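FORM 7B - TANDEM STRUCTURE REPORT

SECTION 1: FIRST PROTEIN
SEQUENCE AND TOKENS:
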Amino acid sequence: MKNLKTQGFVLIDVDAVALNNAGKNTASNFDNAVATKRIRKNGRTYVYVSGQAWRSWWRDSLQKNLKWELSPVTRDAKIAFTDANPLKYADDDVFGYMKAAKEVMLDEDGNPKKDKKGKDVAENITVTRISPLKNSAIISVASVNPEENWSSMARQEGDSVPYGKHEYSAIMKGMFSLDLAQIGTFSNYNKTGYVNLSAILKKEAMDSGATEIDDEFVPNHKLIRIEKEIRVKRATDTMQALKNISGGAMQTNNMGDVTPKFIVLATTKTGNHPFSHIATKSGAYDEYATLDIDALKEAITDYKDDFEGKIFIGKRAGFMDEKNDALIKLVSEFSEFIELNTINEAIDNYCEQLKNQID
């Protein structure tokens, strides 16, 4: 079983947006004022989109553009959970879940156990799945001081109702990792995060053609793996969704394009992400964002033995065009190792490679 990971890095470029808000702006003079998410590092302020929000955009894109049927969400008192059925719902497989419920116990023949009154015997069971897709927050590369601008609701009679909101322009970076060995592969032994399937779902999987394979990382344990065609589709769809991903707060007045303007896609034999520092900042106040080609070259050189197959780089024309010559030179130095394309071509070509990398 190969321990392969898709490693992705993206840059987005947005103007006058408020992609992820943080509730009431207590520092504002307006009664109705909303602050955007911000964080500080080394005395500088950076705007960001939470990893949870990015995952929500991703899920929505898979539903709307790749026609995924999303797992239904159940609300119970103070908790909410999905159906936790990764056999039926691809998003449960890719994004993970946790669900506590009661389930009928099965005997050795796979039939429901009965009590003395002939009723099915149920037990409490918690199924959890660590998400094969892991992602960072999307954070501005350079420091940003959001502007507080005011708007007003003036359509009603009488005085208008003013409200304030933060807006910013920024080049923002994000990274993600998709565990290719974990897609469509499930465990059900007693360890937190590893009880992926209940006994009933395990039986359903095996009856539907799933196979058991050895877990190379946990001796004497088996994993349940569904057919390759489904696993390949789920992995490639997850990548394809980035072409048309959309989302963010205040889109009616501050619509921003959050599709990647620069992307790196590669498959590695380890879980470490090699591209985390290829976008850097400069200027007296760290206010300028740039792509560091030397850092990209260093990452490729240092981790060359960890890559499986080619590295695919995509860039949108009009974005950081001053880096075109340096990128072309880099690709020429590693001509058998790197491909440079448009964003969508890079995603398509990587997905073709991915089809041959999934066991």
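SECTION 2: SECOND PROTEIN
SEQUENCE AND TOKENS:
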Amino acid sequence: MAMSVKWVAELSHVREVTLLGTADLAYWKDRLREEKLDPAPRDGQAQVMISAADLKYWGVRFREVSFSVQVRPVEGLTRPNAAYLLGAYNSLRMFAFVERVFFLTPYRYGDVRISASLPAFIHVFKNDEVVFRAEMADGVGPGREPSQVGEDGWDGPVFLPEKHRRKGRPGKLFFARVRGDTRAYPLLPSQDVVAIKPSSGCEVLQALSDSHFVAKQWNIREDAAHAKSKTYKRTDLASLAESQCV
């Protein structure tokens, strides 16, 4: 019998900046092999999503950023989107703790700052040091016109790292859904800045550096809708396949 996806958070008026890019396909094939996942290639490269959001839950405002690699849908999953969550940071220690302990997601506390207004940026601080920095150049010039404008988003299962599951238990995942009016801009390498500075405890940033991440596109949503499901076992996928995000 098919099970319906149970949403635990459905948030509106989210200010979001997503940075899309590529990374070394062989690196991620090797890294994801033990997770029984395969990166979804495009033009011979793995596809990386870095998504930052400024949002409010139960009246509490916070910011978070997640780092994911897009993967091929597993057997029985017909929708085209799926991702593997490398790691994430939340600006509230309590929310990071809840994510990590109750939802088994790889969240850590970090000072996350974003702007969904031009020029957009994503900053992540650890111990008062910038460990991730992505900034649009100020001003609108040649090549800065949006390449796409209109309703867009992403939905599908997000697989969690194997090491975050309890011993002897099946792997975990949740479903995510993002929708909203989207402005897509090409990243301008000669003007925009993307800097990664891995430090102790920043395994996800080290992986981006080691896999030669290259940013390609900004997606900006100033009024998005986000939804996140409860955490499921991978063995539940067959039952959930018929009732995926719509």
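SECTION 3: OBSERVATIONS ON SECOND PROTEIN
The helical segments are 25-33, 93-102, 203-210, 237-240.
The chain has one domain: 7-237.

SECTION 4: SIGNATURE
Preparer initials: ____
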